[in-house]
Hints:
This protein has about 260 residues and is an alpha/beta fold. It has helices at about 20-30, 40-55, 75-80, 105-135, 155-170, 195-205, 210-220, 230-240, and strands spanning about 10-15, 35-40, 65, 90, 135-140, 180-185, 250-255.
Amino acid sequence: MDLGIAGKWALVCGASKGLGFGCAQALVREGVNVLIVARGAEALEAAAAKLIADNGRPAPTSVQFVAADVTTAEGRAAVFAQRRDFDIVVTNAGGPPPGDFRDWDREAWIKAVDANMLTPIELIKATVDGMAARGFGRIVNITSSAVKAPIDILGLSNGARSGLTGFVAGVARSSIAGRGVTINNLLPGKFDTDRLVGTLKAAAQKSGKPLEDIRRAQQAQIPAGRYGTPEEFGAICAFLCSVHAAYVTGQNILPDGGAYPGTY
Length: 264
């Protein structure tokens, strides 16, 4: 299927590895020009090189990168100094650390809200009007399945990402909806990423069980019987960015291998 987005420009955050990289790779393979962003310069440069060398990438596409922390005003300024207008924006920031809510002070909460709620809102604010003026725009926020089914040790993430979800529910249905701009959230379940390893370690420490036992037990609880891959996640993101998803907005898409037990 031709997704109809070849030649578009995409900003993909947190793209040096994991789900962000999976999204960038899927978009590049569709002929989209990308500006990838992450904090670690070395890992980001390696990710850019991998995208450029990807055999599935159409030759004319451009791959650019900026090492910056998009959760700061300075980091976002560095991104928009490189390129101002984007047709596609994929927001993504590392999740807050796991733990016990009794141990989190105000600073921990503000940091979580800044990274996982306010930063995506700032990126939306900076790009959405240009998209609407041009008559096409796709914004995909990578959030978490914890928005649908909270995880006890991820309280910071549960709270901050739920706040973003509520905001998107309103703005996606505003006047931009009739001007070719969609905003959706992707709520990943358990995907085989570094973030998952960190969560597994926290769960193992809390339970006193070996990490591999935790891993096997988790996979057994997923109807698909395994963790997802960044490539699978990226493909879903690319579809939401396509011309074929123009009638999908304000939605929370939950790729989790069937782990969420609810009907709605």
